[in-house]
């Protein structure tokens, strides 16, 4: 594409043979949405530096629109940004315009360090600190499918920054009262331009449904918002959304239909709950009690959650005794290590710290490499003053996975509290290599500066 004429810039003052070798040579670039790696002003400077020209609005002279990855390019009212709408229309009209993500733009100009930074994966604890929400909420988001880990290391999930920032943006808009149908329509406008839009629309669908729907998946019937397993009505058709009168009546595909019938089958969550309560709880499975415990914990009903988790473990124990084999997850049963882990969390949140520590021990007995259990147990031991046992727990977690930022952070804090600052600096430095932007990163830098006199 030939270079565009315009105001004199750093790129236009370069010799022609240098301009042609630059990655943005001849490009006219605009930005939309919040950038995760830098400000818009800094991005404009990079465009000029690498041979392009930056403009504020989208028109036919624009050859590239960069979409920021701090959140979706949506206005405060939930509608797509004007720049994105204009770019989509120009593409439809045949204009030579590309819509690229911030990460792809950074890669194009060779800023792979910044690209890797915004793609850095986060653990549940890191996300909890970053978004200022309880870690239990992060785990619930994962459980119901709002966020999906890009990988797991010894049961510890890691989440891609872009995915979590997108979910955060959607939740923020819905919390502000923006109609989900408005957001869905906005995202659908550019679903063909960005690969991750389809994924986010599925996230949005869960948020839209909330308590208005229950669905059947491969494991049975559940409330998609809480993950609670409900009574499966046998041969009943799939349960789909029952829309409120003011819901998105313009949905093109309509409600899901059973494969063997053209008649939509719907049931309200309230009706399903009534039927569930009529069912004899003695018939509940370990999996149902586990999900009920998770739901109750989400709603801060900790005593009831504790009882539900204990019921789940009791049923598992009975089944193991009857089958006379070593306990492990079978036939759709929950993992006993996970049940104990959630039980420990509920016990701690209800003020029963000693009992929680014992349950973390139980989780580790079932899964010796359960990193989160080792780390959480270390935190509780430190809180109760058992610093030697806490140190051993953190060291074990780090030995299992040396790149575990949560264990590195808490161990560095413990060493500082024990007056072993020189040792702490080693772990603060290692922590920063995995989390250089989180809320604790600046604290880690200050500690290293105090310990070495060198600012990082």
Question: What does this protein structure show overall?
Answer:
This protein has 456 residues and is of the alpha/beta class. It folds into three domains: 16-118, Rossmann fold (3-Layer(aba) Sandwich), CATH 3.40.50.10190; 124-281, no CATH class; 283-452, Tetratricopeptide repeat domain (Serine Threonine Protein Phosphatase 5, Tetratricopeptide repeat, Alpha Horseshoe). Helices cover 51% and strands 7% of the residues. It has 20 helices and eight strands. The protein has helices spanning 16-19, 40-49, 82-92, 102-108, 112-118, 124-131, 135-144, 161-175, 180-188, 197-209, 269-278, 286-298, 302-323, 336-349, 353-366, 371-383, 387-400, 405-417, 421-432, 441-452, and strands at 28-32, 53-54, 64-67, 98-101, 149-153, 156-159, 215-217, 220-222. Strand 7 (215-217) and strand 8 form a beta hairpin.
Number of domains: 3
Helix-strand pattern, N to C? HEHEEHEHHHHEEHHHEEHHHHHHHHHH
Portion in strands: 5-15%
Placed side by side, the strands forming the largest sheet appear as 2-1-3-4
What oligomeric assembly is this protein in? Answer: single chain
Radius of gyration: 26 Å
**What is the strand tally?**
8
* Most strands sheet: 4 strands, parallel
Q: Pick out the low-confidence regions.
A: 1-19, 205-218, 231-274
Average pLDDT number: 75
Instruction: For the record, give the distance between the C-alpha atoms at the N and C termini, rounded to a whole number.
Output: 42 Å
User: What sort of overall outline do the alpha carbons produce when their principal axes are compared?
Assistant: globular
**What is the C-level CATH assignment of the largest domain?**
Mainly Alpha
CATH fold group of the largest domain? Serine Threonine Protein Phosphatase 5, Tetratricopeptide repeat
What's the total helix number?
A: 20
